[in-house]
């Protein structure tokens, strides 16, 4: 059976003197404890660095994937809505209430996509500019308007189905007025949001 470190050190140091042997043994055992503790600390530090590195790589991958997905959605949405707007403007036969509602909705969706895309990159890269301070309000303004225009399309579909005779007198100019009202309402909501946010930041309310 192999002797322990303490026994070996006692036997070898006892040849000199008992007092010196005990003192050397104590120093040696303290060194072994400190060495073991230091070794464990280095191992834990290495594990923590590996875990932090893996977590950082995962976050970078997710961020890159989000950027790619957001870019694809924005590009496809911008192209589709731009095509719808150009088609409506070029072809005069599309000046009907239904197509006019789609035209107005395409404008709102286009602006909402661009605003949301810019806001996404402002959040990702932590861009602090004068534009970023108001970008949340702009994004809210365009998104609310986009939702209102979906509601306008639903209302027009309801009129066509439930009131077919009234739909014959329903002109596309009324749809433009409804769209204008949607933009005004969205502007009011976004402005109210900015005012409330300012009051909360200034601790007025």
Q: What percentage of residues falls in helices of 4 or more residues?
A: over 70%
Number of strands: 0
- Estimate what percentage of residues fall within beta strands: under 5%
Stretches with pLDDT under 50, minimum 5 residues: 8-21
Radius of gyration: 36 Å
Assign the structural class, choosing from mainly alpha, mainly beta, alpha/beta, alpha+beta, or little secondary structure: mainly alpha
Order of helices and strands: HHHHHH
Task: Let me know the largest β-sheet.
Answer: none
* Apparent shape: globular
Any chance you could write out the topology, listing elements then pairs?
Layout: H1 5-13, H2 18-90, H3 97-125, H4 130-162, H5 164-168, H6 172-201
Helix pairs in contact: 1-2, 2-3, 3-4, 3-6, 4-6
Please characterize this protein's 3D structure:
With 205 residues, this protein is mainly alpha-helical. It has a domain at 91-201. It is built from 6 helices and no strands. The chain starts with a helix and ends with a helix. The model is unreliable at 8-21 (pLDDT under 50).
